Amino acid sequence: MALDYERERESFEWEIPDDYNLPAVIEDHAESFGDRLAVRFRDEEGDEAERTYADLRDDQNRFANALADLGVGEGDRVMHLFPRHPDAFAIQLGALARGALLVPCSAMLKPKDIAFRANDCEAETVVVHESLTDMVEPVLDETPLETVVVLDAGETGEVADRENWHAFGSLLEGRDADHDGPDLGSEDPMSINYTSGTTGQPKPVLHRHRWMRCFELINGRYCWSPVGVGLTTGAPQFVYEGEFDPETFLDLLEEEEVTRLCAVPTQYRMFTQVEDLDGYDLALTEAVSAGEPLNREPIQAFEDAFGVTPRDGYGQTETVALVTNYPGIDVKPGSMGKPVPGIDVTLLDTTDEEEVEPDETGEIAVPTDTPAIFDGYYEKPDLDEQTFAGDYYRTGDLARKDEDGYYFFEGRADDIIERGNVVKAYVVLADGYEGGDGLVEELQDYMKAETAPYKYPRRIELVEELPKTSSGKIRRIELREEEQAKFGE
After folding, report:
1. Which of 150, 199, 290, 393 has the most other CB atoms within 10 Å of its CB?
2. Are residues 214 and 65 in the same domain?
3. 386: alpha, beta or left, given left = phi > 0 and alpha = psi -120 to 50?
4. Is there a contact between 368 and 353 (Cβ–Cβ < 8 Å)?
């Protein structure tokens, strides 16, 4: 589906009904095509499951009724902590149907991370997979959490013997598949999504129901991503729970006849290391990469094998996709693409609200009046005042724009090198490389040649691994604090 970039930008309009909300969207899907597959699930143990849109609607309402009996109502915060699971959507939708705010938590979080989030948003209810209860149990006495719903609780009886602990399956048994919840609209709060916290404590991003409509209009058309787009468009989604292995994933893509893939650059690089890559008969029509720039080699290898070009994109927890390589435009390796319609993304000088010239580095910024960004941080008025002080929401990310209008990511604004700073690089060696003074000198010479002599790292440390957030982003703040502790800089 090739698109005319300029025509899309000129003709785009925001169409967001006042009564838009995600549970109502699922109700409409169930009425229109209830038998359509919504979720196809497989895991590495060989288990499989399927849910139609009618199934999602019914389980959404059953769980909403159960939450009502547990005292969960409009404005309450419901945390959830589980791996990929066929009932994940029903849990999320059921909480939303009650008018509650979802607080999604990665299954990779530690107890201290869960405690921070629960205390910060004052959540009293958590839905947790049985394999992760030991992440929640230690923090119950130090947080507002009172009600625990356990997914896949089994027949152990452990849940039934504990006060305020409930098995998800038991809660749904015998429940009515209709739910009379609050009247929700596009401006009602929907979720609190915590940022990954690469430069400090995670921040509670508040989104309203209109965010899902914006995802449908932007990501659904220009940069397919699994967050919300499958549900809002009524598409079937394939979900796999298991460790990433490139051969396994390629087999799954082939067997399940997946047509649209969203993966991170590391996965694309691992795909292209598979022998006889072009021997896989994939049904892919679209491939999207997100998280960091994707270099030329995996793009070319994937395109040669499958005739599909992985397209890079850029967005944040606070936004929808802001910049993307549209279907039909030439992909420039290393580029995030061009700004999406309807949002007027620009690059501002880091010290004022003046736009920078082409090929100059500026901070990615979005006008605050666009519906496609968040509405502030949950109950953080001082942070909101700081964030929305001007006419733009400043993302904190730096980029430059070339003469053709393509954006290239340049780093974080809070990682700008100031006078007196010492530049240091941390390097994780690939297989086949050995450390030593010779390699350090080689890397420094390379940086002098590729960037500028004054930009090369004066210090290089070879490490086994880098500290990362639960979403895989590098925790730069830990590296800085460690260095400051060593040298007092």
Report:
1. 150
2. no
3. alpha
4. no
Q: For residue 180, what is the DSSP state?
A: -
Residue position matching structure tokens 């895989």 = 472
Give pLDDT, residue 96: 98
Model pLDDT, residue 466: 86
Calculate ∠ Cα 416-417-421, nearest 5°: 140
Tell me the C-alpha distance between 375 and 385, whole Å: 12
Q: What is the number of structural domains in the chain?
A: 3
**Cα–Cα dist 290/293, whole Å:** 7
User: Cα separation of 470 and 137, whole Å?
Assistant: 19
Tokens 């039934």 correspond to what residue? 160
Beta-sheet pairing, 424-427 with 459-462: parallel
Strand partners, 253: none
Give domain status of residue 4, yes or no. Answer: no
How far, in Å, CA of 27 to CA of 33, rounded?
10
Q: What pTM value is reported for the model?
A: 0.84
Does an H or E element contain 398, and which? Answer: strand 392-401
User: Is 196 inside any structural domain?
Assistant: no
CA distance 216 to 446: 43
Q: How far apart are the first and last CA of the chain?
A: 52
Q: How far is CA 12 from CA 217, 261, 314, in A?
A: 9, 25, 19
Enclosing domain of residue 303: 210-415
Residues 229 and 357 in one domain: yes
Spatial CA neighbour of 125 closest among 142, 104, 145, 106? 145
Same domain flag for 127 and 89: yes
CB 64, CB 94: distance < 8 Å: yes
**Residue 349 placed within a domain:** yes
DSSP string, 233-256: HT--EEEEES---HHHHHHHHHHT
Handedness of CA 262, 399, 380, 197 (dihedral sign): positive
Round to whole Å and give the CA distance between 201 and 404. Answer: 37
| Cα–Cα distance, 404 to 5 (Å, whole number) | 12
Residues near 178 by beta carbon (within 8 Å), at least 6 away in sequence: 61
Residue 155 to residues 151, 158, 348, Cα–Cα distance (Å): 12, 8, 58
Residue type, position 108, single letter: M
The 3-state DSSP class for residue 1 equals coil
Mean pLDDT by 10 residues, the chain (489 residues): 83 96 98 98 96 98 98 98 95 98 93 96 97 95 97 72 92 96 97 81 94 94 82 95 96 97 92 94 93 86 94 91 88 88 93 91 95 94 88 93 94 63 82 84 81 70 80 69 68
Q: Are residues 371 and 429 in the same domain?
A: no
311 touches 223 (CB < 8 A): yes
Does residue 202 fall inside a structural domain? no
